[in-house]
Amino acid sequence: MRALAVISVVITHAFPRLWPAGFIGVDIFFVISGYLISTILMRDLAEGRYSIARFYQRRILRIFPALIVVLAAIFAIGWYLQLKGEFASLLKHILASIFFSENLLLWSEASYFDISSVFKPTLHFWSLAVEEQFYIVWPLLLAFVWRGRGSLPLVLAGLTLASFVYGLFETYRNPTAAYYSPFARGWELLIGAGLAYLKRHHAALTARHTHLQSLIGAGLIAVAFIFMEDGSPFPGWWALFPVLGAALLISAGSEGMVNKYLLSLRIPVWIGVISYPLYLWHWVFLSYMHITFRHVYFKMGLVAIVLSLIAAWATFRFVELPIRRKGRDRDKTLALGVAMGGLAGLVLLAALIPLPPRFRIDLPMPDKTEWSFLLSKVDAPKPNETDIYQLGPESAQEVLFIGDSHVAQYATRIEKLVSAGDEPIGATLAIGSGCAPIPEIKTDDPNRAPCRDNTVNAWRLASLPRYHTVVIGGAWNFYAGSPAFYVERADARVPLVEAPGRRAALSRLAESVRELSAAGKSVFVLLDNPRLQDFTNIAPEMRLGWGPVSDARALLREQPIPAKDKALTEEMKNVLAKSQAVVIDPAFAFCSEDHCRVREPDLTTVYKDNNHFNPDWVAQHARFLDSIFAK
Hints:
Shape: globular
Oligomer: single chain
Strand content: 5-15%
Number of strands: 11
Helix content: 55-70%
Structural class: alpha/beta
């Protein structure tokens, strides 16, 4: 079972397009963990040997050895490969991982404007954090109920149902909370705990039809593997398939058909033995490959898997086994606690007194997101940052911006422009993360549920007399390249990745422009900025130390404009040429015909990530916006 869980996660992380649903291996892990730990706790309670101190001692002996090694490796590799700002962020995540709160940190950071998850080497520690947060409460609650202060079946059923309902609700209201919250994930561990109770008190029931249990369990997991798609709401209802499937496979025992003839083979058993260090190591290699090379190709994914297997075996053989076999548990627990505390102290010291950087050149990196400026002006962000933001005086709101984060990224320049003139002028931004600026562009992605009302409201504002100028912008390259976005034609959905869908969307945009122009408004359309694969332009050989790390000229190389982005820009220009819109192409500010610079001569980065501008660059260099406010 552990082999099935860890291999599915590793394959999905290495080859996400090949197997997008393999992340459900984490849910399988949760069930296994809940079952094994609860079985041990119930046995100790039944035999009168229960000790909360002993429980946490066992957790430290099991979790800490490999965890200390991997976190120390992340620290060392991060210092060598990452820039000053990147390393400072990494230290924060290492500390969160040490204190089993990485899920909470990721939860607080996660949003449309967060840096890509592949650049976070500690990302996978979120699941370990959820487990340990669960085990802060569960052993104490179990002991309380077991000793006659409640009905354990009722407590298990009630908590499991409450956690599942909460997770289901949050999946559609706040997917980030549903994914990282221990309250939304607790039911998966409680399913394992419930199975442990059934095995102990109703063993005859779980011993029936073991082959059938095994086959149904494998089938449920297979359904999730095969039919879940990228963007499927999760955990939600989909999580039932891997969770119940895992519970049935465990219930079937070693004599169940799938367990006996597949999961008991030598290779799955060996992988199961090293599953914990394998889980810890695999993402470290993959993430640092992404950081260094910006993209992990198929062969590189294979290399990462091989390195992970070697590192996992070495960690098991030379770290975990010796600690298990030698010394007294009390002494080993103390030593591991001191080691983990020492690592925490080292990381904290490195954060407070920065280590001498390996990169001798001080590379200014963006420390703000495209939303930072606007969110600083509201008390609390709404889902998807959907809101009506006003810059400049309330009484002079004359310019309306409709769009998404690719409009939000211009806020620093807009603020500068509305404050510069002698005559008061204001700008209203009716925008939201990932919200297509045309109502006819639709998506079923639950993460973008708030967008439709926000976009409809934006176009309602556009009809108001107070707005003399309307600016429409968006992540056009993203919408045209994602199968999740579509238009409806004759009761059929036509995705924007297909030419008919794209033409229909652009025709509707041109029609809307003409309608606004007929109402006497000045209309501007902001084209999309090109997506750049290496937005920092730090060559791999520089990170790896194979080339000079102090030569600024090496950082001023240009990046090619993706052919699809260039083609879409030309298509939009052609369609809008027949409207009365003023078309603004941001690429003129930093691109030649085929290439774009990613840094200014002072080494300021143009981009914050591969598709959003650096807000500091925008404030100084996005002069292409100035004509919008010209009287």
